[in-house]
Amino acid sequence: MRFHRAVRFLALGLLLLVIPAALSSPSSAQIGIGIGISVHIGPPALPVYEQPICPTAGYLWTPGYWAWNDDAGYYWVPGTWVQPPTVGLLWTPGYWGWNNGVYAWNAGYWGPHIGFYGGVNYGFGYGGVGFGGGEWRGGAFFYNTAVMHVDTVHITNVYVNNTVIVHNDSHVAFNGGEGGIAARPTPQEETYSREPHTAPVAAQVQQEHAASQNKDLFASNNHGAPAVAATARPGEFSGKGVVGAKAAGSPYHAPAMSPKEARATPAESRDNAAKDNAMKGDAMRGDAMKSDSPRPATPAAHGEPARTQPGHPEAAHPQNEAHPAAAPKAKPANQPKPPKNTKKPPEEEKPK
Fold first, then answer.
1. Domain contains 138
2. Would you say residue 97 lies in a domain?
3. N or C: which end of the chain has fewer CB within 10 A?
4. Which stretches of 4-54 are assigned E, i.e. beta strand?
């Protein structure tokens, strides 16, 4: 009897130790920042700001982005320097993309190559395609000081490659839809998207959570020009390493609907995700059927990312030199127009 009682007390003690740890550690849902979020209004333009200096060797830059809060709308998550989960990995930023009537958030990830991030020009090496801010050489990361703010006295793993500089004044923060960036993933980026990926590290989750608690970072308060646009270290929103926005990326216009009205319902989000997966499946099957046929040369504006693997500097991409074109509704390539008396496909119908 005493033995069983001791076992019960021991089990209870272990449970009390495990519960706080579970509550304090980020869950898989928390780590996937913004997964499943979709809204009926697009994010503001990216603010204009400078990059804080890299705090120490081995840290990689993660650009700032607009996140969503169901009660207050869009808020700015400052860009910051973080330590990657392991040597050799690079950060592909997340992006907002137009999908069947709503703007859906596509979460960022760590991987061996840079994937598609909507063609969004986040700056500092992320010009819309690939990454020109640095490269892995063996077990060390080398910074391209042409686009990265690094103290070359204390960090000597540096080089200069000016060809990656993108001359693009656009600060559009979303892909597709009215006024969005007209960019589509290249076959190589599609391949990269199927590689093993690692979720955002705890420091990135901390940065997003801290931003969500700061009312000054909400677009409704800062009108697209947050006082904290970037930080040298995650979670540190005051002090020497904090950089404020110089200006909003474009004039801010308050949305016509409230955040609760703008938020897509869970049913809409599931439906849009299912349609998106179906369209991707159709596109992949189409590519497989065409694999035996000669493929036309890829136009310069939609070419392969300049960077194919770590260790090779990237070149500037012509697509980012021009102002993004408006894309009211994305359609699959080479899709024939329906006859005049034919009813439009469901995805082309306006919501009732």
1. yes
2. yes
3. C
4. 38-39
- What pTM does this model have? 0.70
Range(s) of the domain holding residue 205: 31-248+255-290+302-330
Q: Identify whether 130 is part of a domain.
A: yes
Residue 82, φ and ψ in degrees, nearest 5: -135, 160
User: At residue 314, what is the residue type?
Assistant: E
Give the three-class secondary structure for 135: strand
Residue 13 belongs to some domain of the structure: no
Strand partners, 73: 69
Count how many domains the chain has. Answer: 1
